[in-house]
Amino acid sequence: xxxxxxxxxxxxxxxxxxxxxxxxxxxxHNSESAxxxxxxxxxxxxxxxxxxCFNCQYTASFVLGRTLTFKARKLLTxxxxxxxxxxxxNLESLRHRNIEGILNERQQAVRPAEIEFEECDLPADTEELxxxxxxxxxxxxxxxxxxxxxxxxTRPGIVVPFTYEGQIVGHTTRFLDDRTPKYIQDIQPGxxxxxxxxxxNWQTVILVEGxxxxxxxxxxxxxxxxxxxxxxxxxxxxxREVVVVPDQDVPGMRLVERAVELGWSVSxxxxxxxxxxxxxxxxxxxxLATLLTIMRSKETSRIKIELRKKQLVKRLR
Length: 317
Description:
Layout: E1 12-14, E2 20-22, E3 40-45, E4 48-53, E5 59-63, H1 70-78, H2 83-95, H3 99-109, E6 126-127, H4 131-139, E7 149-151, E8 157-164, E9 167-175, E10 183-186, E11 204-208, H5 211-217, E12 220-221, H6 229-236, E13 241-244, H7 250-262, E14 265-267, H8 278-285, H9 287-297, E15 298-299, H10 302-316
Parallel strand pairs: 11-12, 11-13, 13-14
Antiparallel strand pairs: 1-2, 2-3, 3-4, 4-5, 6-7, 7-8, 8-9, 9-10, 14-15
Helix pairs in contact: 5-8, 7-10, 8-9
């Protein structure tokens, strides 16, 4: 693994959320005064790192095995990393791609509709994840090993970055008060949350509606009660069995119809009363028990799926 920490200024500190804070070098390049309050934050991930400036909102990320992005290169330059060292990092990263991975990339390159999203910035007025936000996520049984941020202002919230192939391509904010709307999100057409959470050796992907449902079980989320054609294409590109777990409400039944149309498996477990979605189930039963109920209840038979759907609709009336 390439150690980006070695290139950071000596004056830095580790935060409780896993971020390493230091004076951000990007501010003076983005029409802001020089950072002297250690507002830059970098967090290591399993296969790289993610950077966010809590002052000028500059973001950059790196994934081992992929080419350094333009924004990542700029950040390394601002950290006074020599150009030859930047190229060495890029080459070392590319060497980690195995032959199978390269072949897969070539196969994807010749597909008629290549899947791409524009890189974008996160919202302003963000800061490192607060203790209150961490407690909220823990209470909901959601993993903390993700680069969340906290939203400041009159409505504090949790910002969940949307990533695709290691780049930030959108976000959602979950407000922590009881007012509506609970969520505000910036999502590009055809985007599916959680594809970066999937491992190459997994045989199944669990598809849900909400971002916290996906984070509860390392699934993917379509972020509404439907699956459009572009999202279906993105999910199919994972090349594994798809198990759709709808919310157990009236809108969720539309997701069932679309899953059947796409030929995917559907799971509608008989959860205890009051449990509407995957995250509710994780809070009530735990992650492992929830996954077991999902896999034991999956169906591919249209007749059995329709019968279970009618049972749920009757119960919802």
